[in-house]
Specification:
heterodimer, A: alpha+beta, Alpha-Beta Plaits, 2 domains, two-stranded antiparallel sheet, B: Glutaredoxin, Ubiquitin-like (UB roll), 4 domains
Amino acid sequence: MIKQKVRVKTFQINGIDVTGRSDSTILEVAKEHDIHIPTLCYLEGLSCVGACRICLVEIKGSNKLIPACTGKIKEGMEVFTDTDRLHKHRKMILSMIFAERTHTCSVCVSNGHCELQDMSVELGMEHSQVPYLTNRFDIDASHERFVNDPNRCILCTRCVRVCDEVEGAHAWDLVDRGLDTRVIHDMDDPWVESESCTSCGKCVQVCPTGALSEKGVSATEMVKKKSLIVNLLEMRNRER
Amino acid sequence: MITTLEELEEIANKKQCENNECREELRVCIGSSCLSLGAKEIEKDLKKSVKDRGIEHRCRVKGVGCNGLCAAGVLVSHYDNESGEEVLYEKITEEDTDKLAKAVESQKPLEEHRSDMSRGFFAKQKKIVLENAGYIDPDDIEDYIAHGGYRALFTTLNDATPMEVISQIKQSGLRGRGGGGYPTGLKWETVAKVDAEKKYIVCNGDEGDPGAFMDRAIMEADPHRVIEGMALAGYACGAAKGYIYVRAEYPTAVEKLNKAIKQANRLGILGNKIADSGFDFELEVRLGGGAFVCGEATALVTSIEGNRGNPRQKPPHLSDHGLWGEPTVLNNVETFANIVPILNNGAQWYRGFGTEKSPGTKVFALTGHIENTGLVEVPMGMKLSELIYDIGGGVSEGRNLKAIQTGGPSGGCIPADMLDLEVDYDSLKKVGSMMGSGGVIVTDDSSNMVEVARFFMEFCKSESCGKCVPCRVGTTEMTDILDKFINKEATKEDFELLKEMCEVVKESSLCGLGQTAPNPVLSTIKYFEEEYIKGIKDD
């Protein structure tokens, strides 16, 4: 990778003049300027993968939609985050996420504290535009403190990333592909038998839905500490 | 170890003399298609029969790469070294081997198996990439050298600068044969100009489109051609290491490539200080584990790194951030196979074939309802009608042509009334299909186009890596909706939803797989909408 000097770039988001360091992403600059772009797989402090496609934005002069979380800024670019086309796409994509597995809010531990649920409110999604697929998976409740319910998983891979990038254990990863993709421990072992898992619980705290939860909580009771990762990284950097 | 062009010529001369010791050659096609029909046994039997008849000093039996006419396998060519005459025999089975040896002994051709080589299938082709296929022994580096191999590499290393190589490739107008058609010279130049300690050359041999087998044939028939092209790319871009990523389902190609690399290493054609020039180039074969998505550039390099072969968002492009984060040139097998002839004959010569914007030739794999199933190489810009009728021999069983599918699951269907279309990157794109790697699937009037679309959608569904939502869920949803049309249970709302999903999946997916997955549906809706309407149930 070529190392380039960091400079400041000026461009526009939704017609507003903004500036950002040349190595930042559209999403970072938007946040700095209090411009809201909806995100789902993104989590501050973790690497960006552009998997959920909710944060797609339009760039003038290009027909392509770019995820704001991975899209690097360019001098003079004109970014639009709030167009009819984007609304249509985001709603359809969110519909697909809801249709894929079983997201029944009323019985979910995360009801009321769920980022997926919040997103449907934010985007004004009242019903799924696409037929439900309700793909079914076994629940892993083998761990003494945590539960993994893949039926509520949206494959954002925050758990995989936090375990690898912050905890340094890389206990989680993906198995299979397409609709059958699951997050697993080690060689698809039950959670309790995982040799690499340190039981730190970071994955549970970053999980946007009720897929990873603490044992003993019932519907609506699972409140997650979302700022955990940013605080942790800040403390680490301070020690250095 | 050879270090000079003279030593290379010496090997070539020695091999040529050796080849000329036998006046005649029986060349048995041992490409994968003929291999599955027992070509290896036929080669063995022929050797025995020739020996039994005591004509082994006169006629050599050797295995060669794909001849192209796969529909008529096993193919055996009888070649006369002195007169240059060739008689091609088709549909040879193990029972025919002795008859064939007898025919060679008595100099009377075996008429019932003789193939008419004057017909369009042979006459209308122009072989540049496949010029050695069917002639040389892919297991023998000396045979490649005897046919002019590695001269381009040695002369270039001695006489040309990397920028001169790139300039030749740029002038030739060569475009990536993997399907996208990105200018190869430009790609090389981008990597060559980057300052980096390490750079990589990667060859994409993960050919996975249903109905495509061009790259397999090239790797099996002429592995050294690919290796030489990659070494030249390494020199041009300043890379000392290359990888050939081949799908594990191509065991013969893997075997031939590994053997070829070993032979090249032994002769010092690969390794350190090639041709005494200070240029080092090392080559390694990596196997794909059976995922179509690993043909996508970013997924492919991730897979070589030993990770799950998931694509990642571009940019950064590979030329900037490729294998192990270093600048990387990734080209398709056929692209690398074009390099040697361009450097040997010059860019202007190459531009003499094909069209202004798509110079050169393209190898196509003809499959489906077509008479001459097989592998053909034609100049770009050839009319579809010539490709299907003159070369392909028309639709099989005398039926009528309905559509031609190009570009695999990323491409589209072209209706029969567009036969005048000249085949190149831009014209195919214009009509809603794409060149792709070169698979051409012909469908006759008995086919249901919704089923064709569903076939490709299901393929994408099962090959989606699952990383991004639109591709993972969208391809499944669309397969389900297409099923409704096939079962005549669809509603008007389903049709609207299908079109809407096509748009969303196309525009919002992360990589090329998802972005192009709706193409077969979109093109069949465009040209065969009535078949969708028929799938809508009455209210």
